[in-house]
Amino acid sequence: MYKKKIISLIIILSMLIVTLFTGCIEEINEPINNQKNYTEIAIDFMNNLSEKNYQETYTYFNQDLKNSLTLSQLKETWEYIINIYGDFQEIKETINSTESNYSIIFINATFSEKYLLIFKIVFDDNNKIGGFWVNDFISIADYNPPSYVNPQNFTEEEIFIGTDWKLPATLTIPTGEGTFPAVVLVHGSGPNDRDETIGPNKPFKDLAWGLASRGIIVLRYEKRTKQYPEEMSKLTNLTVMEEVIYDALSAINVLKEKQYVNSNKIYVIGHSLGGMLSPRIASLDDEISGIIILAGPTRGLEDLIINQTIYIANIDGEIDENESIQIDYIEGQVQKIKQLNISENELVLGVYKSYWEDLNQYNPIEAANNLSINILILQGERDYQVTIDDFNIWLNSIGSKENVELILYPSLNHLFIAGIGNSIPDEYLVEGHVEKKVIEDISNWIKTIN
After folding, report:
1. pLDDT at 74
2. Does 358 participate in catalysis according to the annotation?
3. Residue 401: pLDDT above 80?
4. pLDDT tens digits along 201-256
5. Catalytic site residue 189?
6. Is-catalytic flag, 271?
7. What range defines the domain where residue 36 resides?
8. Which of 22, 157, 204, 255 is the least buried, fewest Cβ under 10 Å from its Cβ?
């Protein structure tokens, strides 16, 4: 049974990767067939699915979709969804749109474990469903601060960073007089919000509130791909400069202008992709006092993607035929990236050639080795996305330098949340918090280094 759930998860995550930079969506007037319009058909479809009328639900599919998704796979996928997100509750909203001349209905539905799932339903010219998947999932649970947070120790101010690409941001400011050290939080891959929300977890909010409770200013902001998905999708020359680095530098400049910031103690905390790019960010601003790398890759992102795909497929100890097909496809994409065998208008793993060309020229180890500022590298040993292999490469490459400190946490996953046993994707959907020891180690390091 667990094997079936993992297959379903891979299908869903694959769709999410494709929509990393979503194409333009336009509102349209619904065409109406002889009986019902697209919205009514989509609602009927979802109601049948929620009532587990699988045979009836399956009749809504066209033959192409039936060829790629069997009745049993539809049943397995829905059972996986309700096992993770809880029982279907109600449809909150429907949105009509079109993409590449296909009629689309988005259905926003709530589930009992306090999630809002956005289903994407694509119709063909015969009013049959030719595409159906989870386009996004959003936790609607209230944020419960961890015990190490003291809300009386800080206030928050809503601001914007940037000029041409203005991004909503939050400054978390300790109470009291004088100046404080400050950090900018830099996201991992994907269109992250300022809290780096995944499921009910908000690791950047944990960091912000935890560090501010200990006298450190924190600036976090909406990632550009989150705030401007349509505009970013049109950038065929996109690199990590536009995705990450320019906005991180803008955030640092905002901190420099604040009178309550100790300008001699401004730091960058980068998570995952943000951690990998932190040395590059620091090389572009000589007023940065230090960088803190949380689960920062040392290897190419394409290598991480194929390793993660194999890891998830093999959680139950077996890789079946469908999973092998997916792995072969990802491996083919990885080879394209390594050889830069990519045409100018070709999307490979969701982005254009310019993105991979830029990253292929960047070596985070070399960039970090060229820095004289202090570097703190933190890693969870249970992390399957950026693994202990990356940590050991950091350790063996620059770990002996006087300005570098490394800490490994045996029980923590990629979000620096504690767990037991091998980390699996499902645990990201269980509420947790960044471990207190991580907050304390970062705080102590910032306050004690010169």
Report:
1. 94
2. no
3. yes
4. 999 999 999 999 999 999 999 999 999 988 998 899 999 999 999 999 999 999 99
5. no
6. no
7. 2-139
8. 157
Q: Mean pLDDT of all residues in the chain? A: 91
From the candidates 187, 271, 414, 433, which is the catalytic residue? 414
Check residue 139 and give its pLDDT.
86
Mean pLDDT of 134-154: 93
- Domain-located, residue 278: yes
- Same structural domain, 214 and 101: no
Residues 120 and 212 in one domain: no
Q: Which of 272, 278, 423, 443 is catalytic?
A: 272
Task: Tell me whether strands 261-271 and 217-221 are parallel, antiparallel or unpaired.
Answer: unpaired
For residues 372-381, give the mean pLDDT: 98
Alpha-carbon span 229 to 204, nearest angstrom: 21
123 falls within a domain: yes
Residue 21 has pLDDT above 70, yes or no: no
pLDDT grade, residue 450 (50/70/90)?
A: low
